[in-house]
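Record 1 of the preview.
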Amino acid sequence: MTPAARYKMVIDLVHQMMNIERPADSMVSAMFRGARYMGSSDRKNVRERFYRILRHYHRITWWIKHYNYTASARTYVCADSILNSEQTVATLQSRIFTGIDYAPTPLSDSEVKLLLELQGKPMTSDDMPDRVKYECPEWAWSPLNSAFGKKTKDQLEAMQVKNDVHLRVNTLKTKYDDVFEKLTKDGFTIERGTLSPNCIRVKGHPALTQHEFYTNGNFEIQNEGSQLIALCCDAKAGERIVDFCAGAGGKTLAIAASMNNKGSVVACDVLDGRLKRSRIRFRRAGVHNIETRPLSSERDPWVKRHKKSYDTVLIDAPCSGLGTWRGDPDKRWRQLGPGLSELVPLQAEILDSAARLVKEGGRLVYGTCSLLPEENETQIKNFLTAHPDFKQIDLPAFIPNTVRDGQNMKATPADHDCDGFFAAVLQRDEKVVETKNETK
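->
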């Protein structure tokens, strides 16, 4: 592909982002599936340019509005190129926006005028509000400052850095060192995880899903922070466990591996399609102790019928996803799902309902990929107030001290170089059996 054709594809992607409610990664995948002629270097160039625009969205928007211009897909792509000193207005006109073959149509007079104003400007201006400089949506600025204070900017800066790819070695099928040795031999730049004993970090973004160790189930792609939530369950062979919001099954798989395929895991979700797709992952991983259970809602009658039946219930609650902005930068400026005002009461409902499944002495593990107290610490506090038969307990001993925040687990981009995750472990009181003392 020519450089101009690549620009055209990026413009098409940005246009979709501005007009269609669909995650960025699925848009990119769909476009690439429909363009089989693209080489690997073309795909990499288009993907990286597109995601760079998403990561700089608030700053680019500020510059465009600063000069009283209406933003469009074309202006985002052009402004990104100019502000990153990648092109000049002259080269954009002569080499990219020519209208020849698959190139974008020529720049209009007003587009040229805007780009001439931007030429030579840095991406960040001293006149920008801090919220814009650090690429934070308005709804999250105040809650993040409440959570992190002076360290808020450190967290937001860390969220601008692209993640390495994190793998979880499937110990049901192989040994950690065997996977590490194989990937090293195959030329991948890797390092050991710092938080999870089963994590391998892979530099760059190679096509790992084509690797034989992925296709045969020897490893799964899973962020190291996400692996920690599954580890907080401290799952043991022979136990009965529920993954209440299982989604695609990543944490379900990690739990089943900890159980060495012994006992039972029920993967629940209100999205039956995701559960059906997860079964492919389960088979690939060689897991045999997982049952999938679609739910009509968090109050599905199945929950009532199985109250106090399980050793551990994991709630990987639907949340704002703020902790995953590194890999999903479109979440910074697009709200594809419910907002905080809807999520917070939903999380409380899920906690209240799923808690019924926990037996006496059993554990309830609550986790999110958010860093906001409203979705984390406050939810735990409110739940414990409403459920005096539960108490918060310490995290399992093998959870690293570096992610301990009191009794909570909190992994952050700035402190741990992974996505942001929170978890807390609660325990239902043991049943008290009353006995009468007999006297002779």
